[in-house]
């Protein structure tokens, strides 16, 4: 077993152990992948101010996200098909998040269902990410299931009314169900750990959908339903409708523009996430970290601002916090860990990020994450 010291080590191991079509699903962007790459590279341009001869004993990364205590300002982002990175992936990731003291967010397009994750974590509160689809009756029932599963927040994704083209998914034949082409079958045969895990679980379909929608009883019928259901007519009236039916904490995901951020405030949501869907939707959009400061300036005093996209280290978390993000989300960083080592890999990804966050905060002269601001950044290197 190689020595794991950073998220890149987990990525390399996951690439070896997860079938190509599922690894590429998590690790690709749309079109030229320029926004996907910028999410990471724009963090690298931001430089930190090192301070010395300051008492940096007794440090704390503890904070809150939408009023919920967190061990560090990091949540596990919703990632579709997480249960295809590793058998029972959503349950394992939720367990790791629970033990570490950070929120886990389950995707609508998860393999394990709301009920599976609730049972697998002894009904520990987690968050649920909702896609708006045309079947409003299904949405209402899904919100009721979210409530019954003891979820403490609803994360409403606003930037998937239509789906961006991701070349790798088309070339790999990724669909619902996946196309078992000869190259895919041969590739899966080279991943025995993954295959044995999948043979040992009953969770192989989209658990939140299959069996819960009329006419969708298996993976074959799911594909036709899914292709017709993402709703291009989504608007702020739908946000209001969902907010009323949910009644709990609401987070709006997919904000990239200050004008949309002001509309998010008007909607009465509890938080917004500055996000470009991991570079998987509009290629050529700004990176999340470059879009963050203008949105914080516009609405940061009126709503809790979070961000996701490109976070691969605790230093990235600290930089986002310095630029005004009250919370951050990791998606690929934890799915690399999951694909590499299962639940232990998710825990390892959180440990890596936490250690980097703690040490970098100390090098910058702070002992409390809640006191961090732009003063830790070198002027001229951030947006």
Explain the overall architecture:
The protein has 383 residues and is of the alpha/beta class. The chain has one domain: Aldolase class I (TIM Barrel, Alpha-Beta Barrel). It is built from 16 helices and 10 strands. Strands 3-10-9-8-7-6-5-4 form an 8-stranded parallel sheet. Strands 1-2 form a two-stranded antiparallel ribbon. α1 crosses α15 and α14 crosses α16. 50% of the residues are buried. The model has no long low-confidence stretch (mean pLDDT 95).
Overall pLDDT: 95
Percentage of residues assigned to helices: 40-55%
Domain module tally: 1
Number of strands: 10
- Name the poorly predicted regions: none
* Whole-angstrom Rg: 20 Å
Count of DSSP-assigned helices: 16
CATH topology: TIM Barrel
| SS class | alpha/beta
The CATH class assignment is Alpha Beta
Query: What fraction of residues sit in β-strands?
Result: 5-15%
Dominant shape: globular
**Sheet with the most strands, sense and barrel status:** 8 strands, parallel
The CATH level-2 architecture is identified as: Alpha-Beta Barrel
Query: Span between N and C termini?
Result: 40 Å
CATH homologous superfamily grouping: Aldolase class I
């Amino acid at each position: 077993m190689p020595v794991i010291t950073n998220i890149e080590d987990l990525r390399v191991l996951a690439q070896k152990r997860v079938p190509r079509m599922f690894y590429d699903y998590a690790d690709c962007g749309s079109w030229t992948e320029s926004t996907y790459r910028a999410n990471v590279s724009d963090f690298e341009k931001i430089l930190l101010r090192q301070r010395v001869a300051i008492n940096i004993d007794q440090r704390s990364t503890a904070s809150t996200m939408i009023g919920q205590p967190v061990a560090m300002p990091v949540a596990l982002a919703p990632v579709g098909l997480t249960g295809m990175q590793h058998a029972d992936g959503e349950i394992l990731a939720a367990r790791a998040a629970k033990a570490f003291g950070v929120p886990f967010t389950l995707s609508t397009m998860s393999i394990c269902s709301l009920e599976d994750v609730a049972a697998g974590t002894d009904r520990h509160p987690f968050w649920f990410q909702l896609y708006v689809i045309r079947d409003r009756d299904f949405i209402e029932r899904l919100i009721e299931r979210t409530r019954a599963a003891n979820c403490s927040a609803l994360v409403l994704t606003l930037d998937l009314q239509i789906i961006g083209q991701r070349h790798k998914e088309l070339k790999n034949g990724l669909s619902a169900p996946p196309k078992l082409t000869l190259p895919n079958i041969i590739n899966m045969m080279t991943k025995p750990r993954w295959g044995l895990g999948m043979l040992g679980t009953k969770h192989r379909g989209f658990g939140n959908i299959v069996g819960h929608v009329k006419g969708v009883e298996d993976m074959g019928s799911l594909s036709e339903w899914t292709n017709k259901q993402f709703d291009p007519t989504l608007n702020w009236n739908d946000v209001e409708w969902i907010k009323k039916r949910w009644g709990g904490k609401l987070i709006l995901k997919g904000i990239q523009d200050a004008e949309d951020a002001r509309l998010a405030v008007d909607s009465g949501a509890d938080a917004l996430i500055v996000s470009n869907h991991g570079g998987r939707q509009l290629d050529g959009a700004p990176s999340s970290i470059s879009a963050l400061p203008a949105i914080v300036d516009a609405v940061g005093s009126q709503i809790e601002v979070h961000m996701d996209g490109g976070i691969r280290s605790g230093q990235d978390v600290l930089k986002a916090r310095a630029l005004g993000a009250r919370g951050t989300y990791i998606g690929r960083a934890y799915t690399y860990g999951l694909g590499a080592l299962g639940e232990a890999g998710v825990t390892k990804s959180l440990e890596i990020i936490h250690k980097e966050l703690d040490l970098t905060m100390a090098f910058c002269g702070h002992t409390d994450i809640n006191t961090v601001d732009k003063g830790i950044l070198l002027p001229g290197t951030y947006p």
